[in-house]
Structures are given as structure tokens and as C-alpha cells.
Design brief:
single chain, about 350 residues, 3-stranded mixed β-sheet, 12 helices, 3 strands, globular
Length: about 350
Amino acid sequence: MDLGTLKDDDWSQACTYTREVAIQRKRVVMKTTNQSSIGEFLFVGLSEDPNLQIFLFLLFLVIYIFTVIGNIFMITVCIFEPHFHTPMYFFLSNLSFIDICYSSVIVPNLLNQLIISRRITFSRCAAQMYTYLLMGVTESMLLAVMAYDRYVAISFPLRYTVIISKSVCEIFLGCSWLCGSVFALLTVVFALQLPLCGNNIIDHFFCEATAFVKISCADTSIPQMMFFVIAVFALLTPTLIILISYICIIINIMKISSPEGRYKAFSTCASHLTVVTMVYGSALFLCLKPVSKKADNRDKTASLFYTVIPAMLNPMIYSLRNKDVKLVLKKFVRQNTHH
């Protein structure tokens, strides 16, 4: 075709078509870049101040040490003390194991960010996201199971060991891990499919699913809706179980005639209720609020209270509020002091 014979309209159409082709090619290139060339991510982290980074490193190192020691102590007590071989301590030992894993997924990488490098490979980021969600959802389910366990112990004390038998405990534990695995896998699949278009800077201190929403270059309304639905099932379902269990517990406690009996019954739930309030408060704030593409330091603070702090405080809460655990701890201290 002779280009000189093209009319103005033909030139306009040709130019429009050329621009559309260029845009489509650019989108393909950006999508390809997103899938193939992003081999690692860079965390913004908690602070850019070197002095504050040193302080935070020492702080979280101490927290991690206390977390591991405290939870190992709880597991050891539950395994080797014969009168602790009950459903409550079975669940408590598994909760301590989850807390060790949970903290080990987050804190060592955070310590590495503060003094060495803020980079993380794509595969490690995906593994961290999956493991963190697995432990978080499993812990939520386990806390719901523990609430039901306390309800049965208070409402049906004579039939407690029959209703919450060893096989029932194992089924509850298996279902908790299964729910955690499924919800974690679904969330990671949706998060890693978001197009990033070469943007590999995560404004967080670990690979959280919602952080990928903030750096995605596409419409994230559908992934956000999926994350919300997953959060509803993973958090609100155990929350509902806990609320119903404690309503029934309170009703049964109020039927006890003596104040001493009511106090003793409620004291068996105090540790669990404290942990639930601490964990679920920050978790619900994080998971059920709308995801914004703008940086929000409140998300990081809430994440610390959800991922790092409870894992350290859980063994302390159960130790300080449990007479049997305190007796074992005193016995252990006396034996080591004499030696």
C-alpha cells in the first residue's frame, strides 16, 4: 500500500491501532517481568534509624529467647509430669509447640533484617507466608477447642474424661491443623497470583498476604474479597465457638451457690480468656479491616502483638495463673538450686 495515498482518517486509525498494540505488548512484558524476574523482595522493616535498629534487635532477641525457653518448659512439664496428662494440658502443650514455630517463622528473619539484610527470596517469602498462616489459623482453632474443653470441664465435671477422651483430643487437634493447612494454602495461592509488575518492595517486616495487595499493580478487589472470606471462616468461626462456650460457662458458674466455688470455676478459664483476648483483638483488627495501599504503621504494630508478643506471654500467663504449674516451677528451681 502506498503510504502517500492514506487519508487523514486512515492515519488516525493506524496510529490508534499501533498505540493499542504497544500497550498490549507492554502489559505482556510487565506480566512476564512480574512472574519471572522478581527473584527476591525487599522489606521496608520497622525503622531506618541505626540506633533504634540495634535496640530493636536486642529487644526481639530477648523476646525470642524467652519465647523458646518458656514454651519448651510448658511442653516439658506437660509431657513428664504424670498428673498433667489431661486434655487441658494436652492442648496447652500443643499450643506451646505452635507458639515456638510461630515465633521462629517471624523473629529470626526480623533479626536478620535489623542487622544484616532486608532481602528475602521469592521461595522463602512464600514459605514464610504459608507457615505463618498455618500456625496462626491452627492456633485460632486450638483456642476455640480449648474454650469448648473448659465448658465441658465446668458444665459436666463427672463426665469430662468421657466426653473429652484421648481420641477426641486427637481428632480436635487434627482438625485444627487441617483447617490451618487449607486456609493457609488458599491465602498464599491468591496472594502469589497478584501481578506486581516489577515492584518487589514490601512495606512490612514479614511476608504477609495483605502486603502483596499493597504492591500489586492490578485491581485487587477480588483478592481482597477472598482474603476477607477466608478471614471470616478462619477467625470469626472460632470466635463464635469461644463466645458461645463462655456464655454457657458463665451461665453454669452463676448456678454455683458458693462464692468460693464460682471463683474456682472461673479461675480455670482466666488464663485461656486472657490469651484469647490478646490474640484475637489484634488478629481481628488486622484481618477484618479494609486493606489500603497506603503504608500504615498501625498494621505493623498490630502484627507484632499478634505474631511475636503472645508467643512469649502465653507460657507466662498459664504459669502465673496456674497453681499446679507454679508448684512444678518451684520444685524445678529448688532442685537446680541445691545442685
